[in-house]
Amino acid sequence: MPKLYWIFLWSFALLWFVCFIITAEIFHRAFGFPESLLFSGNVVFKLVVLFSGSVLLSYLLTDRIFSRQAENVKAIVGSEYRDYLGARHTRKIELKLPYEKAFTLCRESLKAIRKNRIRKEDSSKGIIEAKTGVTKASWGEIITLQVSRVHSDVSMVEVSSRPYLKTNIFEGGHDLRNVVNITAFLEMAGGSNKTYPI
């Protein structure tokens, strides 16, 4: 499992554990139980059972999240690549085009993505940045294309996509789909078969 899986698992476990303790104490104070539900009697046993239950619930929740993300990835790239389970994706592609034509083609490649608008464009620095629209499943994504000159007739393009909200860890495969669609467009139009996942 990826490192992110275990981070989620133990974070959820700790969250459930704390929530259970707070809820138990609220009941104790609100309904006037003579003794604390947790901190009386065999305290260690109660805490162990509570923490075990928290870990189990966290496992079920985390596994569900990762399974759904893996299904989205499989639908896009045909395999449940664990490296693709995150929300930020980047690929490099080599184009058999001079710098100026490669930059123009990158701008056109954004047509392969659903409704979006260009937020930043600088041909001297070789950068194009666009944002997709908000949908019921996403607040939108930031797509960045960075063009660099390799030779007079060869250019390198780095395509990346991330959620608009930087705190978003899982995004249902939207960013991966953006990168795959753009690189596919560039491969067809730019005469290249060299793509480098990062």
Explain the layout of strands and helices.
Layout: H1 3-30, H2 43-77, E1 89-95, H3 99-109, E2 116-122, E3 127-132, E4 141-151, E5 154-163, H4 174-190, E6 194-197
Antiparallel strand pairs: 1-5, 1-6, 2-3, 3-4, 4-5
Helix pairs in contact: 1-2, 3-4
Structural commentary:
The chain has helices spanning 3-30, 43-77, 99-109, 174-190, and strands spanning 89-95, 116-122, 127-132, 141-151, 154-163, 194-197. Helix 1 (3-30) packs across helix 2 and helix 3 packs across helix 4 (174-190). The protein has two domains: 3-77, no CATH class; 87-197, START domain (Alpha-D-Glucose-1,6-Bisphosphate, Chain A, domain 4). It is α+β, with helices and mostly antiparallel strands and 198 residues long. A hairpin with a 2-residue loop joins strand 4 (141-151) and strand 5. It contains four helices and six strands. It has a six-stranded antiparallel sheet, covered by helices on one side. Mean pLDDT is 77; it is low at 79-83. The chain is elongated and about 80 Å long.
